[in-house]
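agent> Task received from the user: take the single chain below, predict its 3D structure, and emit structure tokens. No templates, no multimer pairing.
agent> Plan: (1) validate residues, (2) run structure prediction, (3) serialize to tokens, (4) report one or two observations.
agent> Step 1 OK, no nonstandard residues flagged.
tool_call: predict_structure(input=
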Amino acid sequence: MSRVAKGLSLVAGDGSRAAKSPASGSPPDAPLPGACWHLPAPPGPTLSELFAGSPRDAGWTNFLLAQADRGKPLLWIQDRMAILESGRIYPPGLGRGELIHVEARDARAALWAMEEGVRCSGLAAVIGELWGDPQALDFTATRRLAVAAERSGVPCWLVRLGGTANLSGARMRWRIASGPSLANPFDPRAPGISAWDAELFRARGHQPGRWSIAHEAGAFRLVAAPRGGALEEVERLRA
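)
tool_result: status=success, residues=239
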């Protein structure tokens, strides 16, 4: 983007410069016990909405990054309250790939930056974090983001921290919470692969559902499958 509006601050950087390789001799993560699983996805790039299980739960970050094309820069926007309540993103922890971070004064500025970003085909995706239920975030604003993303082919993620699932133009709406990590076969006292409790409660072209999933070697895998409308216990399936 050639300019930054008043009230926004921008930092560009390459997460790969700060990323470190695993220590020499470290064993790789063990394969997951479940089979590969195809994450429900829209037919094309559009606006998806994600509600964090808790404002302090950042597990959704890896859920999104697992779906992003890191061959292009990723635009990440946070409004001021999202940073104050949940923290600023830490580029070295986001893996390899170019990252553009925008800090917005408020939700209105963040939505403006998101809409400008999704119109740029040179981006891999746009992620916007908003806190609460700001007045600027209404159906019209989300509809504009969805239409802009579909026209440009740039996927857009609207992350809601401490917000309610009110009327939205998002094509897919998720609730993501961190789950117990899988067992580490090389050290029972160490955490293994990250897992999430993922609930798809609205989607165009997909049935709603809830799953316990993990991501390894470029693929999502089921950790627990729904049973009778409820998740089976993760620990029993891992045993």
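agent> Step 4: summary for the user.
Residues 29 and 207 are 32 Å apart (CA to CA).
agent> Done.
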